[in-house]
Amino acid sequence: VMRRNPFGMDICCRKGSRSPLQELYNPTQLSNTAILHQIRRDQVTDTCRANSVSSRKRRVLTPNDLKHLVVDEDHEMIYCYVPKVACTNWKRVMMVLTGRGKYSDPMEIPANEAHVSSNLKTLNQYSIPEINHRLKNYMKFLFVREPFERLVSAYRNKFTQKYNTSFHKRYGTKIVRRQRKNATQEALRKGDDVKFEEFVAYLIDPHTQREEPFNEHWQTVYSLCHPCHIHYDLIGKYETLEEDSNYILQLAGVGSYLKFPTYAKSTRTTDEMTTEFFQNISSEHQTQLYEVYKLDFLMFNYSVPSYLKLE
To answer: Which of 205, 206, 195 lies closest to 280 in space, CA to CA?
Structure first.
C-alpha cells in the first residue's frame, strides 16, 4: 500500500497486519469519520499553502520544536499535546499505552504525575535519523479547540486560581507592571489579580512577542505543533473529544480495552463564558488578538466568533 508522506516521497507501509495508517488512508470500509478527518487534513494543508508567503523562509525544525510531540513506540503513534485541550487526559492515556502494563486505568494516574516530563518520551529526545523515521512512519495526531475558548480557559486556570502562584509571579507581576497604571505595591509583588483585559493587552503587545515565546498555555497550536511542517494524520477537536479520541484508540488497535476517560467538568470554559470575557475588550484589541490567533482559526476551521467586534 503506497501513501504519500509529508516529504513528498512514496513510502510503503508494513506488510502483514494492517497498520493504523493503512486503516486511516485506505479504510476497509469508507466511513464518515475517515472522510471527516480527510477534510480536516485538507483544511490544514490549504491554510498552510495559502499562508506560505509568511513562512516562505521555511525554517527547518530543530529538536527544540519537537518537545510537545509525545512518542508511543509500541503502537507507533505520536501525539502533539496542546495545553487546555484535554492534554492531561491524553497524557494519561499515553502513559497507559507506553507503560507496558504499569498502568491500566488512565484516571488512576494523578494529574500532576501526567505532567512529569520523564513519564513520557518526546520526539526531541531522539537522533535526527530516528526523528525522521518516526515522523515518516508513525501515526501523528493532535487535538485543537476554539482558540479564544482555549485562551479564556488558560486565563481562568492560571490567573484566577489562588494556587497558581508560580504563574502569578512569573507572568502576573510582569503583566501588572506593564499594563496597569498606578498599580499597588502588593499587586506588583504578587501578580495574583490580573484582569482579562490586561492579559489581552499583554498578548498583543509587540514587546511581549519580541521578549520571549508565549507560554505553552496560550501559545498558538500552529507554533506548538508545527502543522505546516509536520503532516498530522488526525486532527481531533475538543468539541468532539470523545468520538475523535476513541477513533484514534480504535485505529491504534487498543479500542477494545482502552476508552478515553470522560467526565463532565462543571468548571469547564464554555462559549457563553468566553463571550462574557470578551465583552470588556475594545474592538481594537479584539482585532489585534484575532490577528495573533488567526492561523489557528483558519487552519482548524473555526469561524470568527459572533461576539467579536472587529475593526
So the answer is: 195
What is the predicted pLDDT for the residue at 61? 86
Among 247, 73, 56, 215, smallest CA distance to 143 is for 247
Measured distance CA(144)–CA(81) in Å, rounded: 9
State the residue for C-alpha cell 521578549. Answer: 211
pLDDT tops 60 at residue 57: no
Beta bridge partner(s), residue 69: 80
Distance CA 29, CA 47 (A): 29
Q: What is the pTM of this model?
A: 0.90
Q: How far apart are CA 191 and CA 171, in angstroms?
A: 7
From CA 105, how far away is CA 138, in angstroms rounded? 24
Q: Please give the Cα distance from 22 to 266 (Å, whole number).
A: 39
Radius of gyration of the chain (CA): 20
Q: Where are the alpha helices (DSSP H) in the chain?
A: 20-25, 32-50, 87-98, 111-114, 128-137, 147-159, 165-167, 173-179, 185-190, 196-204, 206-211, 221-225, 241-251, 271-278, 283-299
